[in-house]
């Protein structure tokens, strides 16, 4: 099953903690997707690497995501071009594509791994013009395979009046997120990475050529430290953590829905709306894997499962009552500009975080970039330099983040309602127009019939002779 990540090996430590002092080339702090990819690639390039994980591999977002691998970043491509210019935006985009290719190649080697193809980005508003311009930029300028779907096609695949147009990404795909994180860990160990679980890094001393890393029961010396701890990093990188807005996203898996699911959804890939409110896909044949609400504090997933239930009911009322089998949450750090933090903070101290909602292809990209930077002097990470570390606003920022999130989501829900209202109004207008045309046609037919009767009676009055007037 590729549905619920609960009750899985993501929740227990299976590796020992670091209890003895160690000397390595690279110390990676954090055993999520970002840290594991970086460690694996650096080891493949010949570095000696230790990865220290405070809890266990994949316990957070990396083992609890929906597994959708999309091209690009979680920011609008137009915003990216505005910020860094067309050529750099295109270079960044192609790096993100390399990230997606990396995930595909890594998962393809997993025995029994099945890749589901395709993703739909659906619009909750009737904005066809915007869609055409995005299609042009993505397809023609950025070389991404995309297809525009008109309303009829979208509603054939998703039987709801909530969605209008869509962009279809035929090369996007879905994976089992849990399997992927553990696959990376296994490959990293095969390549020589030493992974220690239950080993939080409590402080670092990054001065000098050989840097020091302290854990509760041992010390480590290394030439490079890579912070890949997401917004959990804590004491060793307080200033870095302050540049991330921690965001908890909740997800749920439904009970099997049987035949009725096929009556509501025929699309087999992932579906996400343009405002990132809802993201779902079918798993195990007839269950829905759905993620939707977000908070800037840690809430109870069971409570948010009810919210997911009501979102499903609002979008697919035809499904009828849907029972939730499991619910969970994961936290990701969001940057103020929405782009990941990838690069060197000071000689030998690297950062890999801020991957937000779209972390599968981007952690793969970031991990490879930093490994190549350290081992091969590849400086393409500098493409991320315009996205400097911006303070996320501390606890006030969290409140602001929640308010802005709720507002923009509310705003987009309102825009969706407006589009549906307009569509219904347009439907009513068209029906009225058709009725008006029918009345006109009937009136004309009546007038024609009356005219013919008058002509006939005149004809009869004139004695029935042709041209008798
Ligand atoms: C519900 C949900 C659904 C999602 N769906 C998708 C999706 O479909 N597609 C997609 O692309 N993205 C998705 N994402 C986002 C994606 O999962 C994340 O962006 C990605 O997993 C982040 O990886 P990471 O390695 O940066 O962070 P994490 O997974 O948080 O890993 C960081 C690790 O560092 C460790 N750590 C932190 N500080 C220390 C320390 N001081 N010492 C030692 N260890 C430390 C932590 O314990 C943690 O294990 C989703 C996220 C959520 C929550």
Features:
469 residues; alpha/beta; FAD/NAD(P)-binding domain; nine-stranded mixed beta sheet; six-stranded mixed beta sheet; 11 helices; 19 strands; elongated; binds flavin-adenine dinucleotide
Written account of the structure:
The protein has 469 residues and is of the alpha/beta class. The chain has a domain at 1-114 and 175-244 and 335-392: FAD/NAD(P)-binding domain. 40% of the residues lie in helices and 21% in strands. It is built from eleven helices and 19 strands. The protein has helices at 33-44, 77-84, 86-108, 128-141, 151-157, 177-190, 238-241, 259-264, 301-315, 360-376, 394-461, and strands at residues 22-23, 26-29, 49-52, 68-69, 116-122, 147-149, 166-174, 194-196, 203-205, 211-214, 219-222, 224-227, 245-254, 270-273, 279-283, 287-295, 324-334, 341-346, 349-353. Strands 4, 5, 6, 7, 13, 14, 15, 16 and 17 form a nine-stranded mixed beta sheet that branches. A hairpin with a 5-residue loop joins strand 14 (270-273) and strand 15 (279-283). Helix 3 (86-108) packs across helix 10 (360-376). The termini are far apart. The model is unreliable at 6-10 and 463-469 (pLDDT under 50). The chain binds flavin-adenine dinucleotide (FAD).
């Amino acid at each position: 099953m590729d549905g619920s990540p609960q009750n899985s090996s993501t929740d227990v430590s299976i590796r020992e903690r670091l209890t003895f002092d160690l000397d390595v080339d690279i110390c990676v702090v954090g055993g999520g997707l970002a840290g594991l990819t970086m460690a694996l690639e650096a080891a493949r390039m010949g570095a000696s690497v230790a990865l220290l994980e405070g809890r266990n591999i994949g316990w957070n977002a990396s083992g609890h995501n929906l597994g959708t691998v999309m091209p690009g970043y979680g920011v609008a491509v137009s915003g990216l071009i505005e910020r860094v210019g067309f050529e750099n935006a295109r270079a960044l985009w192609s790096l993100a594509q390399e990230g997606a290719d990396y995930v595909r190649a890594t998962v393809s080697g997993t025995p029994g791994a099945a890749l589901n193809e395709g993703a739909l980005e659906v619009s909750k508003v009737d904005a066809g013009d915007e869609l055409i311009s995005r299609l042009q930029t993505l397809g023609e300028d950025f070389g991404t395979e995309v297809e525009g779907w008109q309303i009829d096609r979208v509603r054939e695949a998703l039987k709801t009046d909530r969605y209008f147009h869509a962009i279809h990404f035929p090369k996007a795909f879905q994976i089992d997120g849990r399997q992927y994180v553990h696959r990376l860990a296994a490959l990293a160990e095969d390549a020589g990475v030493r992974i220690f679980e239950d080993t939080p890094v409590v402080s670092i001393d990054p001065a000098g050529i050989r840097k020091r890393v302290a854990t509760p029961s041992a010390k480590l010396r290394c030439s490079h430290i890579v912070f890949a701890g997401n917004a959990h990093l804590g004491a060793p990188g307080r200033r870095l953590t302050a540049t991330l807005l921690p965001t908890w996203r909740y997800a749920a898996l439904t009970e099997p829905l049987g035949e009725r699911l096929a009556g509501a959804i025929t699309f087999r890939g992932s579906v996400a709306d343009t405002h990132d409110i809802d993201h779902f896909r079918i798993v195990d044949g007839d269950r829905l894997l759905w993620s939707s609400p977000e908070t800037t504090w840690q809430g109870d997933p069971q409570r948010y499962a009810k919210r997911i239930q009501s979102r499903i009911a609002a979008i697919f009322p035809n499904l009828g009552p849907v029972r939730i089998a499991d619910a969970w949450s994961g936290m990701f750090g969001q940057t103020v500009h929405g782009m990941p933090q990838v690069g060197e903070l000071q000689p030998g101290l690297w950062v890999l975080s801020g991957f937000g909602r779209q972390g599968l292809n981007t952690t793969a990209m970031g991990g490879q970039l930093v490994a190549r930077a350290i081992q091969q002097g590849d400086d393409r990470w500098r493409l991320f330099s315009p996205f400097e570390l911006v303070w996320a606003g501390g606890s006030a920022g969290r409140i602001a983040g929640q308010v802005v999130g709720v507002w923009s989501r509310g705003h987009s829900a309102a825009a969706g309602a407006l589009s549906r209202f307009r569509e219904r109004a347009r439907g009513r207008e068209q029906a009225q127009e058709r009725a008006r045309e029918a009345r006109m046609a009937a009136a004309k037919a009546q007038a024609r019939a009356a005219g013919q009767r008058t002509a006939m009676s005149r004809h009869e009055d004139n004695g029935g002779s042709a041209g008798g007037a």
